[in-house]
# Entry
Amino acid sequence: MKKLLIVISSLALACGLCAKTLKIEVPPANLVGTPVPIKMTNLEPKAPNPEIEVPDDVTNVALKKPVTSSDDFPLIGELEYVTDGDKTAAEGTAVELMNGLQWVQIDLEKECEIYAIAMWHFHQQERVYHDVIVQVSNDPEFLTGVTTVYNNDFDNSAKKGKGENLPYIETNNGKVIVVNPPVKARYIRLFSNGNTTNDMNHYTEIEVYGK
# Structure
């Protein structure tokens, strides 16, 4: 299967800026336990992550950055796991938040031009997380200047607008969101509302590619 090549900000690249193909490293597959049937329709087909053409100085600007959450006291793990650079499925690498609609938020500590976001919820088991929404803003309260870059909440149960993206099965490939055109923002907020295995919300790693 041919890999999907997405050219971002082609005008800027054509003006002579150095460019590179952003290849996002994925952790090894590590499925454990007895699979739980996924009883959902209209799932996104499994496919390789896209290769994205970006300026040469784009990096993971979320690495080691501060993380806050709607759940002040995670049930398992620490919020710092979300940006610690470890996206393997080993025990002790994911944070677990309580049930219901919850979010984690990353402070990039300055406004960045964002080209892509990669996320891994939990990939020791194939499952689908509900109401996955990703928004960016310069407002830490997300009351103004909010841009939604991904939304698979098909019935608007999270009250953030009806999403146009399809739910997907978690794997070690994670989910790569291409932000085209790029958006400038300081804060990234990611929502979920339980999954097809249980009602909890999990995050193993979030990467934000920008400059």
